[in-house]
Amino acid sequence: MYEVARFERAGDIRRMLLEQAEDGLVVREDLSGPSVLVAYGDEWRSLRVVFSPSAVEALLEAVGSACEGASLREYLSDERHDVADLMDLCDAREVPYTFAGVGSESGIQFRPAR
Predict the structure, then answer these.
(1) Number of domains in the chain
(2) For the chain, what is the total number of helices (H) and then of strands (E)?
(3) DSSP of 69-104
(4) Which domain covers residue 51, as residue numbers?
């Protein structure tokens, strides 16, 4: 797992990570701090979006066309973008992905690829 960006503000920490795996590309966002506790009731939360090898090209095209040729790394390094934004972009461009979220108290959320 490679850390692309780390944002810290008012005690909150948000890390954006990428991993090239056998089953595709994983984008992960790790969250912790007081805002996570207020919003989700969790001390920490990890969100993962997994793109199959066949979906990676469409993902990169979607990011590039939405952000004036930006790479996925540039997109994730921009503090204005988070995993939810990436999922919204992929939904709009019909790029399939699998989502999983894990929280310290809220447990596991899972949404398979469509």
Answers:
(1) 1
(2) 4, 6
(3) T--HHHHHHSTT--HHHHHHHHHHTT---EEEEEET
(4) 2-111
